[in-house]
């Protein structure tokens, strides 16, 4: 399950990187230089942009490893760790989300519907990884692995469909965060391809669909012009997830009904609302990530 596309995660990271304190930024830069993928992340950029490029690339690296064939990341038969930075070679797909149950109108949540507990999934991993980074040596190669995960997961849980699974007549055991909720972004969107368009994929791309450094930086500058109130920046991860789950109910699932014979066509007003909400979530994620990293690394 992906959350935001690469451009969305990179925009969260760009906002955060611009708001790190000098000391926190220097420590983050040094940590990411220990990552096995650092050379690849910085291969095509100037030395002046290397640290920023590495930070942005780290923001979606844990999605990239789902398709990594070079080193053998897998959740089925992972090989032994190939680098001191990697505690294991698992993809850890379940780290990216939690499944709070949400019921479609007129539908009851089945008693046997398995959900990730409030202290598990992405929330549990954010708390656990923050603790690992705080209490392990900054010189440990594994800091780079867990830092990349933290950058990514903060973005993940601000995507509303990474916090809920909606039970409907068509999907009584949950729709996997909208992955099973088929939609048509336009009336003529084909449904006969290898992967049908779904609500989750639509929201992944809602903030920005172009992965280029100029596009990411331009959106990051635009969104960062207005700083959130301190109480919002310092809100704990439980609050981020509560917000996302509420937005899923109030906004995301207003797309239509997934129990109709034909998938709903997303209206222009819905798409405009989705873009505004997605960008606000990216903005908050960026400032909250900066606050978290400043707490971790701007200290003696």
TrEMBL record:
The keyword Iron does not apply. The keyword Nuclease applies. Transmembrane segments: none annotated. SUPFAM superfamilies: Phospholipase C/P1 nuclease (SSF48537). Keywords: Disulfide bond, Endonuclease, Glycoprotein, Hydrolase, Metal-binding, Nuclease. This is S1/P1 nuclease.
């Amino acid at each position: 399950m992906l959350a935001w596309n690469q451009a969305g995660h990179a925009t969260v990271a760009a906002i955060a990187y611009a708001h790190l304190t000098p000391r926190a930024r220097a420590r983050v830069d040094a940590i990411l230089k220990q990552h096995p993928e650092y050379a690849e992340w910085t291969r095509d950029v100037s030395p002046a942009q290397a640290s920023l490029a590495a930070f942005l690339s780290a923001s979606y690296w844990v999605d990239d490893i789902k398709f990594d064939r070079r080193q053998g990341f897998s959740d089925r038969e992972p090989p032994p760790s190939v680098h001191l930075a990697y505690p294991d070679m698992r993809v850890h797909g379940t780290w990216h989300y939690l499944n709070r149950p949400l019921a479609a109108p007129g539908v009851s949540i089945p008693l046997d519907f398995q959900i990730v507990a409030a202290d598990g999934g992405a929330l549990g991993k954010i708390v656990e990884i923050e603790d690992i980074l705080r209490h392990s040596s900054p010189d440990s190669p594994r800091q780079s692995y867990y830092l990349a995960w933290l950058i990514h997961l903060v973005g993940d849980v601000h995507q509303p469909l990474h916090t809920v699974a909606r039970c409907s007549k068509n999907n009584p055991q949950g729709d996997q965060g909208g992955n099973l909720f088929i939609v048509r972004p336009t009336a003529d969107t084909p449904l006969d391809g290898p992967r049908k368009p779904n609500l989750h994929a639509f929201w992944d791309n809602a903030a920005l669909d172009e992965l280029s450094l100029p596009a990411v930086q331009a959106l990051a500058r635009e969104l960062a012009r207005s700083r959130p109130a301190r109480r919002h920046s310092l809100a704990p991860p439980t609050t981020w997830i509560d917000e996302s789950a509420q937005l899923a109910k109030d906004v995301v699932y207003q797309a239509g009904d997934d129990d109709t014979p034909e998938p709903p066509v997303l209206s222009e007003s819905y798409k405009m609302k989705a873009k505004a909400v997605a960008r606000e979530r990216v903005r908050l994620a960026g400032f909250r990530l900066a606050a978290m990293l400043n707490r971790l690394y701007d200290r003696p």
